[in-house]
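QA checklist item 7 of 12: single-chain prediction sanity check.
[x] sequence parsed
[x] length recorded as 90
[x] structure emitted
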Amino acid sequence: MSGRVASVLTGVLILCALSLVTAQYESRRLFIELERAQAAARQLDIEWAQLQLEQSTLGKSSRIEANARRDLGMVPVTPARTQYLTLGGK
């Protein structure tokens, strides 16, 4: 009887040890996955900040006006160049 109890306890001990090793391995794997996800999130935050800065730079009216003058040959409207349309046609 004592030999049977000892073998059952040995089996339970082995199962507990294997369970502990498996839990530690899974914990390490999940921690590494978490670290990678956090690094990716930090990289995305950096890219987002860069895109916001670029958008604010591209959206400035002075830059848009300079591009319109340079690339499209546009000039500001003056009263001398303004044409007014009326309903009567004359």
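[x] summary fact logged: The two ends are 119 Å apart (CA to CA).
[ ] second reviewer sign-off
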